[in-house]
Amino acid sequence: MSSSxxxxxxxxxxxxxxxxxxxxxxxxVISALPGYYHLVAASDIEQRTPAELSExxxxxxxxxxxxxxxxxxxxxxxxxxxxxxxxxGRTVIEIVTDDMPFLVDSVSAALTAGGHTIRLVxxxxxxxxxxxxxxxxxLRSNEGALVPEVAIEEARALTDVAESWxxxxxxxxxxxxxxxxxxxxxVLLDVGEAVEDWPRMRARALDIAAKLRQEPPLxxxxxxxxxxxxxxDWMVDDHFTFIGYRExxxxxxxxxxxxxxxxxxxxxxxxxxxxxxxAFAKLPAKVRSLAREPVTLVLTKANSRSTVxxxxxxxxxxxxxxxxxxxVTGEQRFxxxxxxxxxxxxxxxxxxxxxxxVEVLDLANADPESHSGKAIEHFLETYPRDEMFATPAxxxxxxxxxxxxxxxxxxxxxxxxxxxxxxxASCLVYLPxxxxxxxxxxxxxxxxxxxxxxxxxxxxxHVSDSVLARLHFVVRAASGEELGEPDLLGVEERIIAAARxxxxxxxxxxxxxxxxxxxxxxxxxxxxxxxxxxKEDFAPRVASHDVKAIDELGADVSIHVLMYxxxxxxxxxxxxxxxxxxxxxxxxxxLPVLTSLGVDVxxxxxxxxxxxxxxxxxxxxxxxxxxxxxxxxxxxxGERFAEAFLAIxxxxxxxxxxxxxxxxxxxxxxxxxxxxxxxxxxxxxxxSFAPEHIERALLANADIAVSLVRLFELRFDPGESLRxxxxxxxxxxxxxxxxxxxxxxxxxxxxxxxxxxxxxxITATLRTNHYRRDESGRHREIVTMKLDASRIDVLPxxxxxxxVWAYSPRVEGVHLRFGRIARGGLRWSDRPADFRTEVxxxxxxxxxxxxxIVPVGAKGGFVPKxxxxxxxxxxxxxxxxxxxxxxxxxxxxxxxxxxxxGQVVAPPQVVRHDGDDPYLVVAADKGTATFSDLANAVAxxxxxxxxxxxxxxxxxxxxxxxxxxxxxxxxxSVKRHFRDLGVDTQTEEFTVVGIGDMSGDVFGNxxxxxxxxxxxxxxxxxxxxxxxxxxxAASFAERxxxxxxxxxxxxxxxxxxxxPGGGVFRRTVKAIPISEPMRRALGIVDGPEAMEPNHLIKxxxxxxxxxxxxxxxxxxxxxxxxxxxxxxxxxxxxxRINGGELRVLVVGEGGNLxxxxxxxxxxxxxxxxxxxDAIDNSAGVDTSDHEVxxxxxxxxVVRSGDLTGKQRDEVLASMTDEVATLVLRDNYDQNxxxxxxxxxxxxxxxVHGRMIRDLESRDILDRALEVxxxxxxxATRAMAGQGLTGPExxxxxxxxxxxxxxxxxxxxxxxxxxxxxxxxxxxxRIQQDFAERIPGxxxxxxxxxxxxxxxxxxxxxxxxxxxxxxxxxxxxPEVVRAASAVTAIFGLRxxxxxxxxxxxxxxxxxxxxxxxxxxxLLDRALRWFLNARGGILDVQTEVDRxxxxxxxxxxxxxxxLRGVEQDRYERGVNQxxxxxxxxxxxxxASALLDVFAMLDITExxxxxGQDPASVLDVYFALSERYGVDRFLGQITVLSRADRWxxxxxxxxxxxxxxxxxxxxxxxxxxTDPEQSTGERIEQxxxxxxxxxxxxxxTLDQIAAAENADLAMLSVALRVLRTLxxxxxxxxxQ
Length: 1629
Prior knowledge:
By secondary structure, the protein is of the alpha+beta class. The model is unreliable at 276-281 (pLDDT under 50).
């Protein structure tokens, strides 16, 4: 122990003593502490506390308290730190015994032999004091003092004893401590007996030696006797550890000899006279001959191991006893162990051996001074000493000569000596030193064990600088058995083969496997490449296989996997080899892969193969258990396992529990990938089942999992045919039914639900690219599946018409389409767990947004799964995102039909369960703004028919940011809202707060759309900008500067241009000081002096300014009834406010999802003016749609050779401004629609309610999903005189268009009247230069339908078609044709154009009133056509018929008005003028409902052949004379509370008009046209005087009623009908 350790131990002991002193510990323990740990290394006890050290001694003292001198106290028990102070997890052995030699090493040897691992040994020798009974009284200090002190008279009765206290800690795991205690007591007893009898055994040896010298037996060589005596003296001289002694008598006649122990002669471990030791059985024949051999010494090994000192086989030294006649009469036997000095001493100085050396040299005829003599002597010096004692000189000479010869020849030899008693054989194997290693030794050992048929074998090895290494094996027979005698020559041959170098065998194996030529090339590389560990584990023939596998790895293949079944292993065990060439493999990387494949890895053996002249190779050999004796498809398991491992390793498959199906279900990795793809899709469906639940369900029902895969293959494997014929359909049905039956047996409800969901997804799949391969034959990296979402019950509403799910280990994505012709952006989602939910929310808005364009709503999202950390590698992060995007795009195109020469071309290797589907377009979205060229490059690679129209906005498309189109579209909404407030945003200043910064498209462009913006505050994810009292002109200029910078932030804003009290603040600061100007600008009342950034952002959102402009990303406004979690934008939870907290007048939604729909509605109820994001920012998608459709047309021109690609791009660019104008017209018209809708919302609340119910009943609309009011809420609003809010009207308007487009189908496109709408869609240059191409546009029908739908709804109102269909029973196409005819006949498009031109010139109230009045004409006239023409209406025919008359006579209508009708007209003009309308438009609008009469007037004129002008005058005269106008007014104010009252109201009006027309027809037909109007009426009345006065009286009474109801008006109508009947009857007579 070093001095530093001594100091450390002393410090520990001082602390222990101090603790014990203060803890009422037994003084004996305190006195024992210093001596107990005196010789212990500090490292053994430094982790133990003073209490633990003291308690360990206390335990030992407790054991030692009562031990009679000469006895042994042993205790074995499990450690308990709390009770004993010992570390838990260990077994503690405590021994107290008299001190003597060999105690510790004997105990240690016994424990080691029992397989116990020793962790700590403490063995102090303490001088203790005991009384006569053995009770512990105290301990002696180093100075001899007794502690504790006792009285002098008591001390005289005490005995001092040197005791060995042994404390041993071994690993826990003792089954029966009592057994171990008994064993240790036996060992200690043996030690005690050996030590106690040591002097007597030494004395006995000396006595025998003396007698041999004094009285040598008769007839024996005196030199032999002298050598024997000298050997005994030499043994006594500390060269032999005496352990036992006994004398034996040789009895019996010749041939019947036996040995029997002489009682009372035993010493040491042979002291006891046990019956089994008193007499041996009859000696074997060979032993009998030796027993009487006249030699003095018997030197051999005993057949038992020593329990004393060390666990070696006992050395047996027998000295024969002779009678006076020189006959052998017995034996004096010593058992013990030769000491270390005996092995180190030269054989020349050891009696007996020295003589044997001389004899060997003589036999070898070698001069001791010669080279050969010295060689033999060296051989003898290094010969196993124990063996040399027992080996005759003749054998030694023969072995020595042979060894010298084989050394020169590098040979291997076996020399075996059998124990004369047949108990063991000593086998010496000499072999070239370089061939010796553990593996060789073990092989030789196994050969010897096999040859002798034993299991017990000991070995020692001697390796020096000699050419040869020597292995000494002692093969022992089992107890009571005699060792066999094998064929030693055969054994030697086997050993020679085993000792051949591994490299020799390897070279031969390589030649056998690969041929001489290949082997000659590879041997120089691999001969010395394999490490020793590999050689020990694998035969050379295996190495030859490994070399072949490594050699087959190429530059592009750096890893190979092989599964094999070890011959000696159980059926459920396998091994896997992994070969790696470029770099080693981390165990942490490979273990998860192997474990996921459903195996338990039990061991791993790595090897580095250092090739000569080549880079190293690594081989990893893993042992594993499969877990089930039943292995499906066992013959292909190795191949499938290797393929799966490589697929995972190369990133083509993922690590999860489903990989276990490869082993457990017999699937391959691609089949598992199918299940994994559907499982991931199930997770995205919003299910509550976690991924591990889904995996467990499939693993627990592996048979069903296999059946699901087989069903998938039946549906989509193109190997048979790409057609789904009857036979295939029947097989699919049977497979599906079988799975359903199997599901009935699934016990777990959760598992049943999961498996049924997966089944529904497979059966709902329409297409997949799973079987598509590239030119090299490789399968696609991504799996895409087109699904009929309506057939998957687990999907939430709304369910798209078509859905594509894309899965790969690199990216997952989804694309939702609500129709065959659909468009929408693809976004880079940051929500891997629920990105489908995110996309579904967006596609709802897209549906509404797309109501203005040809395609219906679509949306896609993808999540890259292997992104590097963008903070460390931004470029790599972006590159991987782009790669994931292109992979997603490829997957979409893989299953999309193409067009070639106008014909649909199905994708190769794709089985289709649906019809043709060639239309697929994508667009930029969050994260993919610059990705359009990437998408178009993929489309070009696929030769997709849309070309770069596939993804709009690319380098050859319209740059939305440069155009500012999205912001400009949203600004149309802003301008409309402000016009409603009487503010012109382009000439008057107004205050704004915003979300975004000037580098952004929507925010930046939006904040430059008016020079009169006073931007008070804005924020983005980096900064908060506040300018409390901004200068409009200066701030506009600074915003323009920032917008022009390549990259800018609010941090770049010139601080000198910010008004006092403002500034730019980072959102990362803890607090922002609030100045008084900021407080006033943001309306912060009694606020703190400083605010956290998030609180300040909330204040900005709640600021009392004019406009909130959203140009950013995120959701910032919700409803009070919504939780933040429901919003689904966790990043902005801290800043989000409720809609009712908004204090702005107007909200402009340039960005998506800035407010929840419920938040918008709440804000609208609170007084804010706003639409929805889908309405406001629809210009972007509208522009993209125009781009796509223009490109489709121009690409046809390019393909025909009439235009080059460069020219096409120039044409496209030249139309940028006009495309913007066309797009913005849509935004403008929609705002007109919604402005008019808001104005009349209260009056139409019941109609809107019925319309919502109708859309729901047709599965077009989900009321709850779109946050439209329930029926009871609608009833409540109706009673309160309230209508739908602006956001609700925006949604309803979109669905009005969506439903009308569905109802129209191709009806409008097939009507020649609407052909002009197709032309109007395109810019003028297209109309002029490529007019002949327009009719053949591939999307002709969709463009026409979209144009017609938008025109009808925008101009006629949200409910125009619904009400017309409801009231007349007509179909939607019939209503559209009638409305189109009316619009043309009465020139309404021009009227609307002139009304819209009044923006900012007159109040919007006036414009709305004018629009609504024109809609009254439209409503009445289209119903007239529906009633008059029904389904046979031809628009062109009707226009040609009526329009000339209307144009010619409209100016005559007002002069024809009389009386109350003239008064009504003038009141109408005045009302319009009072609202602000120009007089000319006011007069025109007031006469519109009168001009409506031109339809009846024209038909009457045609029927009678009279001049329409004269008919017109009669018509209006009769109307005034019989109060028709008053009745119409009374009908107008009737309630529309339900459908039936609405129908009754309409029927009354129609019947009233029809009655007036028939009345007019009768009068005109029965009077002279040459007469004046008055004369004609008088003439008619005079002919019908009977009953006329009564009718007039009834009509006057009803007309005078203030609140005429339905019944009164019905009576009036009946009276008029009676007059009509009279008129018609008279005319017919």
